[in-house]
């Protein structure tokens, strides 16, 4: 893996470990109104995220279409509020391991759904790695008692976990990880308040005690602010398919922290499952493959990306034809009319577009590279270091 991919993998892993460790905080909120707790968590997280966005950071919101706003609302409703509601409802008639096993299948679903949405075939190594992660998550958690309602709500939780990744892809690039996290937290807080008023009436919110307040603060400041930003930064660099592989670390982190509060044990079975999760993540993320080169390692993983990027080795002077060199076919040959293409002007500093992929392979003269405009799927893999 190159530096960008490695950084994205570490960010996604950190986010999932934080979520897995948060189960300890959830255990002390059992008697606090669900909707009120979610309102406080996401509302506080939104307030903490606003300074990270900075002045003028909300400007991209004015450029969003109505369809993108609907997608953001669906992301908050399905991937955040709906997911947590489904898990709580499932645990009323099923043991906690049951929704955990279903949610552990999210990497497999995302590995199939995302390529179909983007009009390409699923990547075999990612799919194989996702399968190993799902088996490892099942091994760590085991299976428990469940009825039809428990299984149905567990499937709903799986849909929420998948939606949290898939629905975010088209809005991640225009908003960036910080602004996206702030917006969906604000929407999730409003949706939680609406659910609380409908379900619990005036009892939907109360003043938490010290223990509950500490747990809510941990969930808001660490799990939501740090976890969400790291998750979307990781997804921006390695894509939704590979980022979701790391969700297998959630049950592993939960199993590792359970003995600390006396709610579980970590034995040989959990260790074996953790090994399967680690192997699946390594296989699907590409950590076991040797880098193909320092120029475009992340780009070469997706054939669709190769059709959208031109790597320039030499840039001639103004008005001179471009003479194809022996290494210009690093990714694929650049189509030239009669083996040459006139260049209208030499690139200058400032010609680079914020969404362009730039890579200058000529180590001689210091020239700015030119890149063709990329799509959202490509941006997820290569990332945008301005946001990192």
TrEMBL record:
Annotated stretches, region: Disordered: 313-388
EamA domain span: 7-139, 170-283
GO cellular component: plasma membrane
Matching Pfam families: EamA
Top-level taxon: Bacteria
InterPro entries in UniProt: Diverse_Substrate_Transporter, EamA_dom, EmrE-like
Membrane topology: Multi-pass membrane protein
Family classification: Belongs to the EamA transporter family.
Protein name: Integral membrane protein
């Amino acid at each position: 893996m190159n530096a960008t991919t490695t950084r994205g993998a570490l960010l996604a892993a950190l986010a999932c470990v934080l979520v897995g460790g948060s189960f300890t905080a959830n255990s002390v909120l059992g008697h606090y109104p669900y909707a009120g707790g979610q309102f406080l968590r996401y509302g506080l997280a939104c307030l903490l995220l606003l300074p990270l966005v900075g002045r003028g950071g909300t400007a991209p919101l004015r450029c969003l279409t109505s369809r993108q706003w609907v997608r953001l609302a669906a992301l908050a409703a399905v991937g955040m509020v709906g997911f947590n509601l489904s898990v709580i409802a499932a645990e009323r008639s099923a043991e906690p391991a049951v929704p955990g096993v279903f949610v552990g299948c999210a990497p497999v679903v995302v590995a199939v759904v995302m390529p179909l949405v983007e009009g390409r075939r699923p990547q075999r190594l990612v799919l194989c790695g996702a399968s190993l992660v799902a088996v490892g998550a099942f091994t760590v958690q085991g299976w428990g008692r469940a009825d039809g309602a428990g299984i149905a709500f567990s499937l709903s939780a799986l849909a929420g976990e998948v939606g949290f990744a898939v629905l975010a892809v088209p809005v991640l690039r225009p908003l960036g990880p910080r602004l996206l996290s702030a917006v969906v937290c604000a929407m999730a807080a409003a949706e939680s308040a609406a659910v609380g008023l409908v379900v619990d009436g005036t009892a939907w919110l109360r003043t938490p005690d010290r223990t509950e307040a500490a747990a809510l603060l941990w969930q808001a400041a660490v799990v939501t602010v740090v976890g969400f930003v790291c998750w979307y930064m990781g997804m921006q660099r390695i894509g939704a398919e590979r980022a979701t592989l790391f969700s297998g670390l959630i049950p592993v982190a939960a199993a590792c922290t359970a003995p600390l509060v006396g709610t579980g044990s970590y034995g040989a079975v959990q260790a074996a499952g953790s090994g399967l999760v680690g192997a699946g993540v390594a296989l699907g993320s590409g950590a076991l493959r040797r880098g193909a080169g320092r120029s475009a390692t992340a780009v070469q993983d997706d054939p669709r990306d190769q059709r959208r990027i031109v790597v320039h080795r030499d840039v001639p002077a103004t008005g001179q034809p471009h003479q194809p060199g022996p290494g210009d076919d690093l990714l694929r040959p650049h189509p030239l009319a009669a083996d040459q293409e006139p260049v209208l002007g030499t690139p200058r500093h400032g010609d680079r577009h914020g969404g362009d992929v730039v890579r200058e392979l000529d180590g001689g003269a210091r020239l700015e590279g030119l890149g063709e405009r990329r799509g959202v799927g490509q941006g997820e893999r290569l990332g945008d270091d301005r946001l990192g």
